[in-house]
Amino acid sequence: MEPMDIVGKSKEDVSLPKEFINLISSESNEVCSQEEKRTIAPEHVLKALEVLGFHDYIEEVYAAYEQHKLETLDSPKGGKWGSGAEMTEEEALAEQQRMFAEARARMNGGMTIPKQSESDRGLES
């Protein structure tokens, strides 16, 4: 018996055909290139659906995108840049330097540098 992910539907029933994904991503890439962008954005996917004649999907895809944005903003990480917006420029630079040092230490097989706590940062100011 097949595993059920969504009530009453198997994985194969709810997955999209690879050819469909390939078609949409290729057209999205074309739209992206025409706008002289290097990264495919949700708007490019929506435009690709329109160009390819999948008008019936646009509203649902847009709704899913809006829901994703809301869930991402409400997440503990607060989206792509999350806690960075709450840092001063000096704190961000110090954090960047700490992360570089930690990465260097890992690359050289050394010990990791402990992350500076919020209270420690406050003492430096």
Write a structural description.
The protein has six helices and two strands; from the N terminus they run ββαααααα. By secondary structure, it is mainly alpha-helical. Strand 1 (4-6) and strand 2 form a beta hairpin. 5% of the residues are buried. The model has no long low-confidence stretch (mean pLDDT 78).
Write the layout of secondary structure elements.
Blueprint: E1 4-6, E2 9-10, H1 11-14, H2 18-34, H3 42-51, H4 55-74, H5 89-107, H6 118-124
Antiparallel strand pairs: 1-2
Helix/strand order, N-terminal first: EEHHHHHH
Which CATH C-level class of the domain at 16-75 is it?
A: Mainly Alpha
What amount of the residues lies in strands? under 5%
Question: What separation lies between the terminal Cα atoms?
Answer: 62 Å
Count of alpha and pi helical runs: 6
Q: What is the rounded Rg?
A: 22 Å
In CATH, the architecture of the domain at 16-75 is Orthogonal Bundle
